[in-house]
Amino acid sequence: MPGRPHPLATLVAVLLVCGCAGACASPRAPVMGTELLGPEQGEPVADYLTRARHTLPATGEVWALVQFGEPVDAGTAAALTEGVRVSRVVYRVPLPRVQTALVTMPLPGQRPAAELRGAQGRAADERQQAGERAAANGQGRAAGIAAAEAAELRAGCACVLALLVRADRVGLDAVASRPPVRVIHAATTGLPLQALAVSPLLPEQRDVVGPVPDDGPVPIPAASR
Fold first, then answer.
1. Element (H, E) at 90
2. Is 135 within the bounds of a domain?
């Protein structure tokens, strides 16, 4: 979000919801931490991609944010990160020219495909609750967007935008070679999970990192028609 201060608090370890559904200038609102994995606001995308690629470690395991050039479904996300430990998932429902939320969920990292599907259901519940709160406050557009997000997530949409993983250079290079992985941004070696903030690059950000359009119509969920 333009002008947003750099995050300095501790990571919330249970459920982290990033962004807003059409009520803010941008859906980007990083998970709280002290080192940001993801681009800075106003950063040229080409510069960020180069910077992120240079963060991969020579040796040892690190936390790293795997960012996709297009959102994928749970099964595809699990296949793309085969061989590395997955600890967090960032969901975002793609709606044409509509700002949607970034929703971050923790994962045990033992059965990625099943865990990603389960987390997607919890993300749907969160967006439904957000929509109900928005409706109660008279925020019609935000309520409609959240309802549409919840419906898409429950339907098993291709909505996985990024994954936080733990791996060494060999594992990260293997993941980076699998389309549609766009870039991997590694944390400083030795930095604990609790110190990290995540705010992935959005697929539609191709020139400079900044607000995405929010002038499109809000879809009506099928169940509401």
1. strand 85-91
2. yes
Closest CA to 131 of 21, 3, 16, 13: 21
Q: What residue type is 126 in one-letter code?
A: E
Residue 17 binned pLDDT confidence (cut-offs 50, 70, 90): very low
pTM equals 0.85
CA angle 20, 25, 28 (to 5 degrees): 50
CA distances to 123, 145, 197, 225 from 35, rounded to whole Å, are 24, 30, 6, 44
Whether 91 maps to a domain, the answer reads yes
Looking at the 3D structure of the chain, how many domains does it have? 1
Residue 194's domain spans which residues? 16-204
pLDDT in tens, 137-154: 999 999 999 999 999 999
